Amino acid sequence: MNDAAFPSGQPGASQWIGKPVRRIEDARLLTGHGRFTDDVPLENAAHAAFLRSPHAHARIRALDVRPALAAPGVISVFTGADVAAEGLKSLPYFALHKRPDGSPMTAPPRMPLTADVARFVGDPVALVVAGTRNQARDAAELIEADWEPLPAAADLEASARSDAPQVWPAAFAPDYGNIAAYYRMGDRDAVAKALAAAKHVVRLRVVNNRVVANPLEPRALAAQYDASSERYTLWCPTQNTHTVRAQMAAVLGIGEARLRVVCTDVGGGFGARGYAYPEHAALLFAARRVGRPVRWLADRSENFLSEVHGRDSIAEAELAIDAGHRFTALRIRALGNVGAYVSNFGAAVPAMSGARAPTGVYAIPLLDHEVRILFTHTGPVDAYRGAGRPEMGYLIERLVSRAAQELGADPVALRLKNLIPAARMPYTNPAGQTYDCGDFERILRGALAAADWEGFPARKAAATRRGRLYGRGIASYIEITGSARLTEAVRLTAAPDGTVTLLSGVQPIGQGIATSFAQIVAQRLGIDPEAIRVVQGDTDIVGSGGGAGGSRGLQVGGSAALAGALALVEAGRLLAAQSLEAAVADIEYREGRFRIAGTDRSIGLFELAAAQPERRIAVEHTETVKGQTWPNGCQVVEVEVDPETGVADVVRHAAVDDFGTVINPLIAEGQVHGGIAQGLGQALMEQSVYDASGQLLTGSFMDYAMPRAELVPALSTRFDESVPTRLNPLGAKGAGEAGCHGAMPALVNAVLDALAERGVTTLDMPLTSERVWRALSTRAA
Amino acid sequence: MSQGVMVRRNVHIDLRVNGETQEASFAPYKTLLEVLREDLGLTGTKHGCELGECGACAVLVDGEPQLSCLVLAVECEGRSIETVEGMAKGAELHPLQAAFADLGAAQCGYCTPGILMTAKALLEREPSPTRDRIREAISGNLCRCTGYQQIYEAVEEAARRMKESA
Ligand code: FES
Ligand code: FES
Questions:
Q1: CATH 1.10.150.120 region(s) of chain B?
Q2: Which pTM was predicted?
Q3: Looking at domain B95-165, what is its CATH homologous superfamily?
Q4: Complex prediction ipTM
């Protein structure tokens, strides 16, 4: 932590920061008193069900809703024509990139209900409102839809062809296929020269498999419209109430003040819930039209169909290496899938934060990077834990291990030779991004020690005696975190009851952020964290906020909480000076009391609050941190592969992470563990599959494999706090997504190391037993 | 005829939930999960899939973990149902809840009620389970947040504390 934030002379300077304080969230979550969207009681609520397209691409010739309207309990049925007639607008999205010719992205409309042509299986085309959920669902099945099926572009590579079925004709370009957006960075000619002149060129093609975030809480909504105040309220599981409010106000064509968005608890976000969906708007619309609150609860298959998927990219890379095994240039050509519509960050993710560090932790002077972001007739794809960064890290770490293999070099030695040395910090990479600090060699050596790298040959020999293939993999990673929104506002109020209430627009999504904030404020005020109340997740109470995403909550929101606590002390000093009849300069603050320096005359913070006419001391503060931060780390995995079955078992795992200052090690560890489990899940089993016609084949937990308890090995995680960042007063770097990032390349490198002796040189995720077994059998034959 | 009539023909039964007998009136096709959440206001028990695939809805019926999304509530007449709301005794947390808090075993908390109930049944049967037994016991409970390790550690810690205080 930075000394300026918590002066070391301050009493109790390390009382709460860095301690495994019990989470304040747990009092409700462990006792069944959490308040998730479907737990919110609503008088007289009606229930909604959606009719969704069964085709990947089909024109709606006609929708006859009369049979549904006649069904028991049905209150109303709405279609795309109804929302269009109401004047609702298309959902906004983030246009970070342009088209290949430099023109702006064409904005295909994404309406609350689709009226004319459905473009993925699950596209919502009608909404039934009825007295009960079952009535609504039964009635939705009675709607008679006359579909004209059209050819579908379900496959990412095929969608780039000049003869691909067109998802959005206005966006189609013969040379690029169904192109939504285009990104290019670096020096194409210099890289071409470097590749031509290189002693070695290592090439690799990787598929980053399509996965589903699958928060355990299914999608759910509750919407209410109050005719007398003309205000809407929307309860939804979200990472960002203020974004949902802004987007819904735009779609409804109302001022933001007319919409309240509430999210107390959410059963996981992972990137899939940082923005609004068409269903949000459809529910708000329906609630106003039927004059009753309307709620919707998706079942799991509807969740698979309608919530965004993640990853789904294909990259080809070439690495130029000189005679001394130094990397000299990197060329990347990638395709990213955005799905049928542009979800919020969807067209940005394949070349968003990840594209800022394609060279990872290595000193590679030259880069040529091109990404084509394509439409397909599949569900929208958007951010998933890491949002483009794990894809980039996976590519470079696979490439470096492949290089070691081809060069006959030791994978650690090759890495050490090419790591950016700590002495070169701050370091500007060939994408023009500056890493402010980091000691990658120290982290890598730490991970080797934690993994007992030297003990590997003995473990391999033992596994070989048992007839198993055994391998190890290593992967360093670097993240860029903090999101584009580097500002947060807080409000702190000290009350006579001995509490300090903190209002923050950072959203709690299970990451324990309220507890971390309480620790920071308690530390600065010298009081107990139990005295801190943290209020989040309600746009009527919290004025603004950037939500949770991009591992920003602690570094941006926590810095604002810290600065807000300082502002509270300053406001208190002025009031204490009046109250104690002393000069402000003579008032000092320690552990909850203001004192005239050098005397025993003092007044407590809460006593002072009680003495104010409004019986409180309140401050508002807006803090902007100096920049996005660069957490980094290294993971080492050992796997045992059964050559008979192809089953790959992760038997050892070690991670060392540099998150700068760690506020609560228990929480940070949990973030890393959860991320690793998701990374291992993607690497070993998770895959969202569409067939050639665009039907989703993995629409339940029976078809889509999620990491269960028996998959995840014992995890060893350690934090190295020796390189705090100076970009925020806490010295913290984002911890939320890192585990996922490092786990995938480390695991796949380990499996490929195990299979190397059988001649297998590459495999794509997920490394299911079938895929591994097939690779082994083909080689043996 | 149809459903419209069926829907109105509710069953009236006594359900014993967390030691208290409550009269409930609901449509006969409703699952125990739905009745707990919608008719008895006990929203601590969660739906994650409604198909028996995730364990979020686990409760104890006569001490045995059951997926309440697969059990018809009418079948539970006269049986003892335990949900997460009944674990703490007043302000005093059950040792499993306390250990979950101390060791960071809950993140978003959505899977947590189901895992707590499953672990409670395990510890009642086996006071000192090995890690493999714990893994096996909760292998039907999906958790997307934690990676499970802190859950194992918490269940082990709770077992230790329960033995000490026994
Ligand atoms: S909701 Fe019952 S098992 Fe998933
Ligand atoms: S804590 Fe979120 S699913 Fe387990």
A1: 95-165
A2: 0.96
A3: [2Fe-2S]-binding domain (1.10.150.120)
A4: 0.95
